[in-house]
Amino acid sequence: MTTWVRVIALCGVLVAASSPAWPQDAERWDRYLDRPRGPYRGQVVDAETKAPLAGAVIVVYWLRDRLYPVHMVAEHYAVRETVTDAEGRFFLDVSDVEEGAPSRTRRPGFFMFLPGYGSYPRKHVSPSGFTGGIFERQGTVVELPRIEDLEERRKHLFLFGHGDFSDRPFKELPELVRRINAERLAIGLEPHTPPE
Amino acid sequence: MKLYARLGVLAIVAVLSPVTAMGYEVQTHAEITRSAGARSSLDEVLRTRLGVSGGLGTTIDGHDLTNWLAQGGRREDDFLRFLNHFHTPLADWAAAGLLGSVGQSSILWGQNAILSGWSWQDVRNAYFEALTRPTRSDRDSSLARAFEGLGRQVHLVQDAASPAHTRNDPHALYNYESLVDDVREKEETTFGAWLDGSPDSPGVPDSGWQALDGNPLAPVATARLIDADRYIGGNPAVTTDSLIGLAEYTNANFFSEDRIFTENDADPLRRFPYPNRSSVTEQDFDVRVGGETVKRRYFVKSADGAIGYRLATVGLLRDYHQRFNLDWTRFRESPALDEAVYRDYAERLVPRAVAYSTALLDYFFRGLVIASGSDLSFEFANGGDEAMDGTFTLYYDDASDVRRPVPGATWTRVLAPSGAAEDLVLSAPTNPVPKEPGKYMFVFRGTLGSERDAVVGRQVFIEPMMVARLIKRSDGTPHRGAAVQAIDAQTGDVLASGLTDQDGRAQLAWKPGRTILFIPSVNLFPMYWAGASTFSSSIEGGRILQPTDLDAQRQVTIPIPLILASWPERVEPCTEVQLFTHAPRGSFQQTTPLGDGLLDFVSVTYGVNLITFIRDDNGHETTLCGDTSPACVDPRAGFVGEDANRVGQVVGRLVRDMRATHFRQIVEEAGGAVGPPTCNTDYSEVEVLPVTVAEQ
Fold first, then answer.
1. Structural domain boundaries enclosing B398
2. pLDDT score for B404
3. What is the pLDDT of residue B25?
4. B569 contacts B578 by C-beta, under 8 angstroms
5. Tens-digit pLDDT profile for residues B38-62
6. Which CATH superfamily, name and number, covers A29-186?
7. Does the beta-carbon distance from B20 to A67 stay under 8 Å?
8. Residue A13's pLDDT is what?
9. Which of B74, B209, B635, B673 would disulfide-bridge B224, Cβ 3.0–4.6 Å?
C-alpha cells in the first residue's frame, strides 16, 4: 500500500468515525431557532397567594453554538430584559433579535427574579416538567415562592449569576443587576459594582 | 514532509473538522460547578477560616465568587483547550489524551504548569497571592483568579464523567452532552434531580483517593479523582467501588457515540474491553416517537460493573441478525445511543460529576492551621490530617489595607497532624500599626501530605498582651493586689483587667496605639495613667500606650504615689487632746496615775453635724459624713487623678460643722471626784481647713 493510500484510508476511517450519530428520538427538543419564535409572554405570581408579582425582571437570552475548527462553544448571542407590570405580566417582542439570527442560534432561555422570591428556573414552584416553548404561547404562569429565611436567600443567590446570561451584564441587564443588588443588600452582602 | 507528519496533519484535519469534541456543554459545566461549589466547604472556609464575611457571595470585579467558579467551568473549553480534556484510563497517562497524543491527558493538563496557564499549581499560586499580595485589589483579583482556576480544575473532573472523554471519542454534533444541556435548560426539575444525586452514587468518591500512590507524571493527588489506576481492563467490577477514578467508572460502564461494543476493534485507540456483549441483556421499553408510544428494544447493562440502566438501543437489524445467525462482527447491526439512553447515563454520571468536583474543591482547602494564645506566648498547630512541612508566616493589614509580613514572624517547621509549635513570641507590628491589632493572616506554604508547594491560609487572632507593673513611687517596691485595667481609648470599653501579682505585675490584653491604663483603686480616687508618674482624671488625659512604651518584656512600669489627704487639727488646751476628730461620733478617755491614790481622768466626746470637702479648682463638694453616718469618708474621695501630680499642694477645703465636749477631773482611785473638774467645755463650731495632697 502506498503512503497516500494509507493516508486516505486513515482519513476515511476517521471521517466515518466522526459522522453524526443516528437521530434516535423524534421527540427530541429542537434546540435551534429555525424561525422567529417570539414574541414571548407570561405572568409571574406569588406561589402561595397567587397574587401577581409586579416588578419581577424577565431575562430572555439566546446562545449560539459557534463552530470553530475542531470545536464548538455556546456563546451569548443576544439578551433582552423587561419587567412585569402591575398584573405580573410580561410581553417581549424580540423580532429584532430573532429575525435574521445566524444559524445554530438556540431558542431562548428565560430567567425571572424578584428580590425576596425564588427565581425561575432555579427555584420556582411551577411550571414543572418540560418547559420548552412555554412562553411562545399565551397563558403560561410562573409561580415563584417567597423566601423568608436569610440564609436560604443567600444560598439561592449562589444558583445563578448575571454572567450566565450576558458577557456585559451591567450594560445589557441593568434591571437584573439592580434586583440582584437589592437582594444582596437585603441579606447583608455588598452590591455588585461594574468592574473598572 | 515525513510520512508520519503528513499522516498526523491530515488525520487531525480530517477527524476534527466535522465534529465537536466538547465535554459537557459550557452552561452545563457552569451549573455542575455551581452545584459543587454550593455543596463544598468553600463558603464555610471563606467565612470562618479566611475572614471573607460574604463567603461565596463576596463580589469581586462585578461577580461573586460562585460566579467566578462557574466562569472557570465555562471558560475551560475556550479555543483549543478542549483538546486536552480527554483521559483514557486504560492507557499510559503519557498517551491517554485525545487519540493518544493529539491532546494531553486531562490529568496531565490539569497539572501542566508550563502550558496550561490554569494548572493546579497556577491556582495554588493565585491563592497564595490572594492571601499575601500587598494591595486589597490585587488580593481580590487573585482570589477571583483562584476561584476561576478551581472552576477550570473541576471542569476537567467533570469531563471524566462524559463517556466520549474517557473513550477517546471526538464525537458528533448532537450527543450525550447536548441532551444533558437541553435538559438543563428545559427540564430544570430533572436536571436538579441529577445534580442532587442518584441512588447508586452516595459515598463517592471514597476519601481514600487522597492516599493512593501518586503518579510522577501528575503528582498532585487530584489526579486520582480521575484515574485511580484500579481498573486495568479485566476487572470492571472494581469500578463500582467508591474508591475509583471517575474516568475508570465512566469508561468501563458507558458507551460513547462511536465507541459502542468496540471490545474487538482492531484499532487500539478505539478498543475498550467493557462494556461488551456479555455485559448486557435485552429488554423492551415504551418510548414516545412522533407523538405515539412504541416499543423499543434496548441493551440493558446487567453485568460487569454498574448495572440496571439502558446502555444502547438494539440495532434495527437485530432481528435480521438473529434470524440468519449472522456474525455481528462482520455485519454491523448498529446499536446506538438515543435520548432515553442518554438520560439513564446522565442519572448516574451527572451526580458523580458533582460529587467528584466537590471532592476536588474540598481537597484544595483541606489544610488547617490553628493558632492560640497571645503574642507573649502563642502556639500554632496542624489541625489537618496530613503532615505540614514548610514555612508559616504571619501577615497583617495596616490602616490602608496594605498587607505586610509581620517582621520576624516566619517559622519553618515540620508538623505532624495535631503537632504544634509552642511557646512562640511575636513582636506585634508597629510600623505601620495594624488596622486591627491582633488580627493576622497565617499562611503556610510547603509540603502538605504528598502535595508539594501547597498553600494554606487562616485568619487568626493572636491577642496582643502587655504587662503593667505598678511600683510605689516612694520606695520602688511592688504594689501588690492592685486592680488595673486596659481601656480602649476609642470606645472606652474595658479590654482587660487584672490584679497585680507579688511582683506588682498584671498581664493585660491591649490594642497597641489605642489603649489607656486605668488604675481604679490604688488611691481612693480613680486614675488614668498619663505617662511617667503622672495621672489624669479623664480618659482623654490618659496616655495612649504605644509599643515603644514597652520594654523588651512587653512591660511598662508605673511609679504610683500613694496619696494622702492632710489637714491641720487643733489641740484642746485643757485636755491636750485633739479638739475635733474625723469621725461622726467618738469618744476618748484616759486615766493617768498621779500617786497618793489619785488619778488624772480625761474624757472627750465628739460629734459631727456635717463635714464636706470642697475643691478649690471647681468648687465641687463632696459630703464626707454627717451625724448619722457610720463613718467619715477620707477627703481623698474628693480628689481627682490630677491631684496625684500635686503632692504638697492644697487642693480644697474641709468645711466641718463639729461639736465636742472636753472634760478633765482629778479623781480618787476608788472613784470619787476630788474637787471641781479641771475643765468641762462644750465646743460647737463650723471651721474651714485647707486640705493638702500628701504622699506616703
1. 369-461
2. 97
3. 83
4. yes
5. 999 999 999 999 999 999 999 999 9
6. Carboxypeptidase-like, regulatory domain (2.60.40.1120)
7. yes
8. 41
9. B209
